[in-house]
Specification:
Blueprint (H helix, E strand, L loop, with lengths): L2 H6 L1 H7 L6 H4 L12 E6 L3 H12 L3 E7 L6 H9 L5 E2 L2 H8 L5 E4 L6 H10 L3 E4 L7 H14 L3 E3 L7 H11 L8 E6 L27 H5 L25 H10 L1 H6 L7 E8 L9 E8 L8 E7 L36 E5 L4 E5 L5 E3 L2 H7 L13 H9 L9 H20 L3 E4 L4 E2 L3 H5 L17
Parallel strand pairs: 1-2, 1-4, 2-3, 4-5, 5-6, 7-10
Antiparallel strand pairs: 7-11, 8-9, 8-14, 9-10, 11-12, 12-13, 14-15
Amino acid sequence: MKRRQFIKSGAFASMTSAAIVPSSVLGKSFGHIPPSEKVNLACCGIGHRGGGITKSLYNTGLANIVALCDVDLEGEHTAEVLKMFPDVPRFTDFREMFDTMADQIDAVSVGTPDFSHFPITMLAMSLGKGVYVEKPMARTFNEVELMMQGAEKYGVATQMGNQGHSEANYFQFKAFVDAGIIKDVTKVVAHMNNPRRWHKWDPKMQSFPPAEPLPVNMDWDTWLGTAKHHDYNKDYHHGQWRCWYDFGMGALGDWGAHTMDTAHEFLNLGLPYEVTPEYLKDHNPFFFPMSTTLSFKFPERGNMPEVELKWYDGLDNQPPLPKDYGVSKLDPNIPPPSAGDIKKKKLNPGKIIYGKDLTFKGGSHGSTLDIIGLEAANDMASKLPNVMESPSNHFENFLKGCKGEEACRSSFDVAGPLSQVFALGVLAQRLNTKIVFDRETKRITNNPLADLMLEGAPPRKGWEEFYRL
């Protein structure tokens, strides 16, 4: 029976009620993969970063690649992965892929544009498949909320692709908090001051770009997915989608997950009660500002004081640095951004943590923290705790999560609230307005339009079903 007929029938409701039964009872098709077997993995999005994810998951030795899906199978950017797996079935529409071979798939990777993470992920989870989804989890606050609920409902392994959560920074930050080295934090600064694609554009642009001929055999309708219709233009494709509010999450969604993630988790920040755009250079209703400063305010949490998290992006918008800051680290393992390599300089993408007694600096991804100030660092040298080594990289961690051997370190219950922080920040950017947020009701209380935009525009006709899974 085809998937869409199955969902419309009563059979789907009775099947989903089985999610409360342990996966070991339901068998491999509902996420239980014996330790002796590899995870049968379907890869959605196999070019650019999606291709990197596909190769990294395969290189763990823990996965069989059983299906490849991309809307542009004729593009140069998908050729490398297709050549690696010439005999693997390939699809342009993930819905057709699941219709055809859902019973042969254990887990799915989602390396597609931000706005298209949601429907693929929801369908995969509803079919009992583990999901590795690139950061951020989704484009809107409500989509992330539904993805968190779906992960809990279906009981599958989930992982957001912020690799630093399986590297040294993750384990060091946790150890420092547990040992009381990082304590009484009142301010966190996260920054990414490298060129972005839209920095070359005219900030006075007052319309979307005109229609252009589609690449040969590209499935544009599936690329659009739940988003409202746009005619094809090259400035939506090959990573250009990140520039537009309708499709991407800008610099914040791209790099926030690599700079804010450990502070957000181990300081128990949750959701902010206020987001204020302090600086938006060349604000535009279609694409992201040339430079942005956002202030996120988080309340007291138990014995932890209120925290202000400041975000800086833009070439002319670096944060003020503490005395004796020196030069920040640059993680050599950072995947090169699609707009070009990161150029090492004094202030590389990263973070500054202001505690009561100590101030720390750190880079992005897996970069570890250093105590700022030679005297303070020397005084603390003998008091620093031992930091465990990571038992697995981020891709191994997900696949072992699918097999029940490890807990995923960036599962949706961890990554979801962080992604919702990004969604609130992007709303403040897009509307150029302060947002007051009720953490209990999860509603915006000072701006009715912003509150409506938590859910985003209604999905295109024919794509509504994913919001009901």
